[in-house]
Structures are given as C-alpha cells and as structure tokens.
Known about the structure:
By secondary structure, the protein is α/β, with parallel strands linked by helices. The protein contains 13 helices and 13 strands.
Amino acid sequence: MHPTCLQLLSCSSIFALAAGEPNLLTFATGGLGQVLGSTFGLPGTDATFDYVVVGGGTAGLTIATRLASDFAVSVAVIEAGGFYEIDNGNRSTVPAYASYYTGADPGNYQPLIDWGFVTEPQEVWYNRGIKDPSSFDPQGGPPHVSFSNYADAFGSWAQKGLTGVGMELQDGLNSGILRGASFSTLTIDPRNGYRSSSESSFLQAAPQNGTAPMIYKNTLATRLLLDSNNTATGVIVTTAGSYGIPALSYTLSARKEVIVSAGAFQSPQLLMVSGIGPQDQLRRNNIEVKKDLPGVGQNMWDHVLFGSSRRVKVQTASASANSAAVAARLSEQFRANGSGPLAAFGAGIYGWEDLPQPYRSALSNSSLQELDATDQELAVQGFKRAREIWQVLEDAGLTVDVGEEHFPGFNVTTDSDILNFIQRSLMTINHAAGTCKMGKPDDGMAVVDSRARVYGTRNLRVVDASSFPILPPGHPQSVVYALAEKIAADILGLEKPGEG
C-alpha cells in the first residue's frame, strides 16, 4: 500500500458475480449476474445515497463495504484514482515492489497512482523537501494477514544481529507490545503471494453478495456541501476527462452522512476548501468560514527512515535490480507458485527497544526531560546502536568488506557528523497522520470527537489516519482498519465490529 497514492481500487475480480472464483471475463463467456458496470456510478449525473464516502483507500473501502452490507443502505465511494492492477502493472500487487515511488526524489512518482506531493523545505531537519489467514471472511474482509511465502536470507542474519545485542525474541508483533525482535506478519494473501488490500479483501466480495457500494472512480471531491446549520448534505465532485476532454462536475447528495477518508493530506484540504479549518488561513484564501477549527491541517506526524549500509554475502532485493537474468528467474518463480524473493517485502524482521546504555547516557539532561528536544539526539544514538548491530553481523562473517561501511562510511564518526548525515539522507515512510486529530471538546486543536464526528458540524465524519491524535510506533495500517471497523459498527449500531 502506498499511503501517498490515490488510494487505489482493484478491478481484477470485482466484476465477476457468478459462483466460484471471480473471473473478469464472466460476462463474456455466458456467465449470469449483474451487468459489468453496475457497480460504477455514471459521471455527470447527480445522485443521492444514504452515505457518501470520500476516498477508496484502507479506511474508505472498509467503512463503505461494511455500511453497504446492510441491504437497506445505499453507499457511494468517491475515488480519485483507478484500479491499481491496471494503472500500476504489478507494482502494487507483488510484495517486493512495495517500495516503488516512495523515494525522496520529487520526480519519483507515478501519476496514475500518486499525487506527487512534495513538501516545502523543512528547516527542522535540513531545509530539504521529502516525499492470520484463517480469520479471512469470504463474505468480505478483513484483509489476509500472514507471513510471506519466502524466508528472506538476510532476515535470518538480521535476527542474529538483533539478538546479539540483547534483544529478546518474541512470538510476534501483533499483541500490541512492541519490544524485542520478531519476524512480522504482512497483509499478503498466502494462496498466491499477492498483497492484500481493502479492495481485494472487502470490496471484491461485495458484488457477489449484492451489497457493493457505488464506485465513482477517477473522480475528485472538490467541496463538501453544508447547509446553514453546518449539516453535511453532500459532495461536489469532478470526474476527469482524458487528453484534454473537459471534466464533468456534479453533486452526490447524502441523506444521512458524509464520511471523509481521503488521507492525511486530502482530508484536511477538503475540509478547508469547504470552510472548516483555521479561520485566518481560510480568509486569506477567500474561503467562507463555516467552522473555525484551528487543528485542521496541523499536528502532522510521520515516521522517518535512516541508517547505514554494508555489502553482504547473501542475496538481497538489489539482486534483481542489478541482473535481468535474476529478475526473470524470480518473476517466473512468483508466477508459478507465489513464492521466492518477490513474495517478501524486505528482510521481514524488526527490533524494538528502549534506547539502552551506553547510548542513553549520551543524551543531555534537557533531552531526557523533554521528548521533543530528544529527537535529534535520539536519532544520533539510534544510528550508533544500528552500527553495533552491523558489527555483530560482521563478526559472524556476513559482510563482504571487513571493517568497511558502504554508506555513509566510518569517516562519519562524531555526533555532529552523524546528525548532518541523517539530516541529509533521512526519508519519511509515508505514514502521515494526525492532521484532523481526535480529541476532547476542550482540546482547542481537536477536529473530531471519539466517534470521528467533526466538531461544529452535523452528519460529517473523518475516518482515516488523519483522525489519529498521535501516530502509533508501529505500522499504522492495522490501526486504520480498526478505526474504520469501529466507526462502521457505531453507525450500524452493532455491538462488535464486523458483525452483520
């Protein structure tokens, strides 16, 4: 999943409504069922639904399909992108390709799946812009969760490195306790090795059950409609034309609620262009203020990635990038049985710990007392800790060049040198969150309440990573799924998420 992408649907099997495994060509081979396009809204035509969901990503498709599972409820999904299997070839399906279009180069994007956003220079760092399977329900959701069908060779060595510096092995990382080292489960379908998404797990099953939401693909939500009481009544949308053909603008109205699930950047942007946000900023842009909420677009969190590199004696992800023959062999293996290096995303093992001694003692007293001031010092000491782990691997005979570091090199030694290197090289991991934060009514920066309802409005919610008050230390994807399930259960009046 690309968190900065257009939050991508899949068409590989959504159209098949005959019994058995989905088949895109069912309609052309005499199969019975719903007509091919019945799941898709007609551009340019105003329409009314009970719920209108903005965004067909992790949260949006989860909550939309859960709501639509009630036969008495009609749901529309507005999605700016298309189907990722078509728009992005195999790069959104094969696990090993997950890191495509996640680099810091502003030109490293794919316009059919990626907004191509680049930040303004960030002075705080360096003035640089950056960019369990048995639980699966065939009736729709949750996503497949499993280990990949391939054990990465470097992962076994990395395990030795993590345990070699004192981290304890854990049975897994799904208990909610992030401490110690463990291989991680991933959202991968073990039957074929494909990545499992909200579309493949929730949406694909819905047409076969007769409960699919209406999808408006390649359609951008441009403004929320609010009446004089700040009640959300619908969304103005635009469906793009191809090659200069004029776009069509029309209205999708909501009898009950509008649910914004457009992500950490687009959700606050949509609120703001609709008059909900910091009033000074709205007025500077000549936007009528519907509700002054200072927290809209603020409080953004993300995880950062940095570290050192060494040459190793086992095959890693770069092997196929450096050899066409290797790439062809790995592709054939994946096509044959969904296994091999392409079925894995990286080494697959992670280590979590509180910064140990002696690195902890190197933090200043002010940093120990104030977390925000700790960030840079903690990064430097964490970098040194990672070098210690690499040394364990060198001592075990894994590295090619003994006593050498490929990147940045052992000439980077002082705290000042290391910090400068981190500032120049760090990347975010596209886990942006918190820009429409959840909070109590007396929190002046809160945007939504505990049920994701936007303060100062009616019938309007924000359900995605933007509504996190903070970013959890682990991967946010599971939290997004849980949030969407929880809010859908609240709306439907279910005692437990996923019922019904």
